[in-house]
Amino acid sequence: xxxxxxxxxxxxxxxxxxxxxxxxxxxxxxxxxGVTVEKKExxxxxxxxxxxxxxxxxxxxxxxxxxxxVVARDYLVNEKPAMVVDIIDASNLERNLYLCVQFLEMGMxxxxxxxxxxxxxxxxxxxxxxxxxxxxxxPVVPTIARKGHxxxxxxxxxxxxxxxxxxxxxxxxxxxxxxxxxxMEETIKSSSFLTKRYHARWxxxxxxxxxxxxxxxxxxxxxNLDLQLEAIVAKVTKHLAATLDTHPEGMIADQRYGFxxxxxxxxxxxxxxxENRLQISDRIDKVVTNRFLGPIxxxxxxxxxxxxxxxxxxxxxxxxxxxxATDSALTEGLLKSLIxxxxxxxxxxxIGFVPLIMFMFFGISLLEDSGYLA
Length: 374
What we know:
This protein has 374 residues and is an alpha/beta fold. The chain has 15 helices and nine strands. Helix 9 runs antiparallel to helix 10.
């Protein structure tokens, strides 16, 4: 029997590297239904059994702010994989654990692949993965995906725990939100509102986070109950704004990070800083990210204006010729004025900026992929 495994994690955590290490050439690429987000699937077979592995889009959260987040969440809810492997960058533990906490709140069976351990070591970071596993009550397997280290141990853990029952993680979000959550959870449970898809508490949290996809599903499921939940959300939102000058989404995010920090402060992470390396890194950052000099952004502008100058001149020449030819061909009148001054000059003026915009977005995408704007 094949074990369905979903690989999830933040962008640049080594998720796809681990996927390639597990599946090798036994993979195929397609698209998720109705969207252009890439879908990667593959298989792995050994004495432990057969594993059907899917590489979910990289995402920072499970709230439907982007298409990748919607796709990842829908797959987990609809397909219900036997195990979610959350690939975590060991050198950025706090940030990466935020997604893991959301998986646990969702009630998903999770195993952490603590990846890039070699990078963490080079940065003077040592992680007690056994203690982290005990505190989160889920398996934590150290890995170095690009070298294949930890692959066997990870698969053994998945095979051993694929049938385990999981209780959703409950985090206290403060008295105001907890009171609203309890009321909403009771209302949801008593009416079986979306409970075939989600745990009641998780649905309540998503309403407080103003998750549009969940709210749309709720409105279709039971409009009256949806309005009841919205009324509770509006009440607590108004109260938080008046007393703490905050909102439920911000409070929930803060408390999640508070939960993560409470775990990390229990001796999970030890740092042995390389002072010289950090000083060099800081000096470089002060130059390349300087808000006044901005050499990289300056280079982007230089690149944009220099390389777009020629195609812009082509467009200007073409529309100048077209305008002149049309002006000569038509007799004076309103029609000539409309075509030459209105349509040709107007369209030409707009299209002339297209090369500039294309080069600008190309440069921005390069900076995003490099991590400069991540």
